[in-house]
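pasting for the record
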Amino acid sequence: MKFKKLSIKQQEIRFGQSLKVVPIRNKGVKILHNKNPDELEIEVSLTYETPLKKLLKRLFKLQEKKRYVLDAIGRKVYEGVDGEKTFEQLIDEFAAEQKLTFFESRALLAQYFQTLTKRGIIVASFEQDGTASRTSDQRARQAGQ
């Protein structure tokens, strides 16, 4: 796979866009009780959309749900996602709360958000002129199913 090298101007634009992302919680996520008050146990419903995946699910009795346990920091990150704050606002809040620099907080939250997004726990919404884009709305609806 060949990657296109971005100019510094393009990198600055992408960086600015990434800070405007509004993370949204997946409405289909169930929060379960956990003995440890610092942790958060989450259950995500798995979907198998294509006919081949549905067939494999039946043949191999694949899981319909997946559970994850978030540690204390993961819990704070998840609870900070309210569907209104931008990634930049969440970075600033987390940096102030944990006494980190903006860049340290950004690195930590970016990694957590990437993991939470891959696992279907949150969805990224890209805003365009104050309104969420159509594709992000579709992703949020799909994630909530």
